[in-house]
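Q: I have 369 residues here and want to know how they pack in 3D. Can you give me a structure?
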Amino acid sequence: MNVQVAARRDVAAGQKSRLAVADGDIHPALPSLAHIKRYLSKRWADHLDTFGLLPRHGFLAGPAYPKGQPDAMRRDAYPPGGGRPGSDLDFMRAQHLDRNNVELGILNAIGPAVGAAQNMDFGAALARATNEWQVEAWTSRDKRLRASVTIPYEDAAASVAEIEHWAGHPDFAQVLFLSRTAEPLGQRRYWPIFQAAARAGLPIGIHAFGYGGYPVSGGGWPSYYIEEMVGHAQASQSVLTSLIVEGVFARLPTLKVVMIEAGFAWAPSLAWRLDKIWKTLRAETPHLTRAPSEYMREQIWFTTQPMEEPEQGRDLIEVIDWIGHDRLLFATDYPHWDFDDPATALPLRLTEEQRRGVFRENARAVYGV
């Protein structure tokens, strides 16, 4: 359920979330890009001042389709003391963590866009700086929070080094990719990263968006922002197809992947289509010893936000039944404008066990918390 929180700044006491919640998608923000220089060496701080980030896309500044609100943020999420939404831990506690009874919060730092840097060495330095910032500013100050290891994922060797640096650190819950990479994510250039994550016992989180350098469509840049938004689900389907067909899951049976902010109602139809075509063309992929849907149902999880909302709730229940109630992790996307309020999200007839699973226990199991 996508809620325009700006129109309802206060939630009545009776509507606050009473159930302890694990939030699978919280976005911390730097007060400003300049703030990251505190964690960079002088060489890279000077580089940032002189050259900037130079992301891998065809636009000189910013994304192709700017959000209707700055940075896709809730209007009420700006801290009273100044700064960007998501940049003030005390304000986040008051507005979200405490208010919504968040017991576990997974931080996904999608900005600065570490994986987008054209300069690979700068990307590696930026990843280390971002991870050090997450520990100092967030996880060391609130033990409910766990960070995602940001990596320069177009540079496999540097990404492996970053994973190994933080492996075993209790403040990190997963390794973070964005869904639009330079090549299909199952291809072999990325395998060392998956192998390092599996060795470290860390799930892979794949968040929607990214700067692969290509349009979201298969034929060029769309005309409208709505096409871009809808396209993120299509990009995520391509990611899963590549991971399955290239044999990443077959070769790494302990690897866990969490699809974040990509929707999930498309998963059954994708699995059905993959299974049907695999039966005809299975000779092409002898490394797949089971149907594609089996890998999907055993090694993939999905966050609930943004949730597709058919007119008939039973239609969504059928989708969840196919995916498995234990495959869904509740997420709010705080502090973005399409924030899902745990007091009103998932207005479905779930059993108490299913509700506790989606809102808390599934995340605790995936992340080993």
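Q: Anything worth noting?
A: Strands lie at 21-26, 102-107, 145-150, 172-178, 204-207, 257-260, 300-303, 328-329. The CA atoms of residues 156 and 190 lie 6 Å apart.
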